[in-house]
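Below is a complete specimen:
___
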Amino acid sequence: MTEIRTRTTRTAVACALAGLLVLATVAAGGAGTAVAQEDPETANEYFETFRSMEGTEAYQEYEEFEAIRTFAVSRAQEVGTLDDDDRAEFAAVLDAMVAFEQAYERAGAGEYEESLSAAEDAEAAIDELESHEETQATLADLAVTRFYASLGDGLRDEASSTERTPDRIELLSMTATAYERANRPNEAAEFNLQAEQLSAEYNAATERMDDAEATAGDFLDQCLDCGTVAGAVGGSTNPVRTFERYQDSQETLSDVRAAQADASDNGLDERTSELSALAADVGDARLSLAVASVSILVGYGLVVGLIGTAMLGRIFLWRRTYEMAQIGSIVSGGDGDV
């Protein structure tokens, strides 16, 4: 926006608006939209084009553009033959009005990025219009500024109700852009900061999800047979390795479940489902390894028990033999031992 327009007082704008409304001649016609006649050339073509825009919702809500439209209708009816400057002025008015209606309609449809782009096109047309008719440019600029403020409020509310973090970050960034263009720097800075903080948190969560997926993938690749107890037991000739795998499965499952929670908190439904399925696979392997570990421990317990029983049996047998030998020695000694 140029310095002249930004410094125009509301009083001057109101006066200009009143003057335009007095001069305006509203021709009869039904409600229409800003789908203007393509490339009007003559004054009559511009007259018909601007008249057909009567009743457009965007201009009714932002009356500055309705004032510009009615003034353009009146001027096109009076001017007669267009010179180059007249044609450039009418073209700039038409471009600004069409771009603004597009911005208004895109915002209403929730197409916020396209709305901001169309509003920027309207600003460019207004800059061109200013070199021909400053009062109309001032009115249009006032309407666009109000539109940006309203768009910023809508984007703010949309961002607060959006659960999917990437969408929310984008909405916060667009909110900041809208407020900046509405000459509200404090709000723009606030929402820029929110977008940056949320983006950093989301990037950290994404990194945790990526790491958990990679860890789980490596674990499952190294434990291909761990889906069954038999596979978990026979997957390694070293029983200690089975216990180590069980411990790895516990840590991996914990990481995957935490990543699943991150995905859910950030509204990533597809990734939440993927991590849920991965957690189920790791959980199955963990259960198999747990049963395998218990089986190994029970097996070792049985072996140790059998060995212990055999050893105790031999000890009792040796003791019995020893006691019998002692009794035999006493009997053979006769009276001398009594």
In short: The radius of gyration is 42 Å.
